[in-house]
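INTERNAL AUDIT FORM
Audit reference: QA-55
Scope: verify that the stored structure record matches its stored sequence.
Auditor: D.O.
Record contents follow.
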Amino acid sequence: MPLGTLDRTPPPFFKQGPSALSKLMVFSALALFLIVADARFKLTEPLRSVVATVLYPVQWLAMRPVLLVRGAGTYVSSLEDAQAAEAQARARLVLQSQRASQVELLLLENERLRRLLELRERIASQGQAAQVLYDAADPYTRKVIIDKGLAQGIAPGSPVVDESGVLGQVTRVHPLVSEVTLLIDRDHAIPVLNTRTGARSVAYGDPSGAPGGSLELRFMAGNADVQAGDLLATSGVDGVYPPGLPVARVEKVERRADSGFARIQCIPESLVQGARHVLVLTPLANQLPQRPPVEDAVAAPRKSLRR
């Protein structure tokens, strides 16, 4: 084949278009034109809306994992914060409950102390305040231990009262504490006076008569003038209790035909089961003037006869 008949054009694989610099300049100018046109005339706004609408499902699916991870983290942190807040709220609630119970206890204690001070002003006998420490260990007796003893001048037989009335009597004194036998003890007896009729009697302790203990008026005639609700006060004839202190109130009167005596049950006026602050009085016999000697007592009538 002669040389002049050969095709000297390069094959398509080696054909080259515009240069890279030309393409850069053309496309840069086109981009600049589109930017200016879009800024001035809003030419691509419809196209942008269509593209955004078409791509929204894809965007929504692509954001789901991110939102799920973010929501899980927020849920865990919110749950921990809620649990911590609940624990703090419960702790504050317990503290507030303790404070509320303490406030109620303090209010009740203050009220009882005021009533005890008022009772102390009404009583002519001297006395000193004491606090009940605990109940006696013997389960068959009704006794309490107070925080005053020989060191504070407590004497055996001293009456013990609370803000409502007579509580009992000091039966044993130690150097720093004393034992008080309550009214409802089976071995305790106290002379009383019916404030309505003026009749005197003796009230004995009856620990099994009521759930909290009671008193019983024994050897009262079946036709005695005693009614439920009568107030019994100390008569003062025993030389121990000052007269006029509230002791008990008649709760029930049983008049039996087969017996000449009535069964009279009384409820103590004092808080025999819950007293905390009490007043220990000086026995009435210690406040009376001493008896004159026997020689003086015999000589006084002789002198009056000589005159």
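Auditor finding: record pair retrieved intact. The mean pLDDT is 80.
Action required: none
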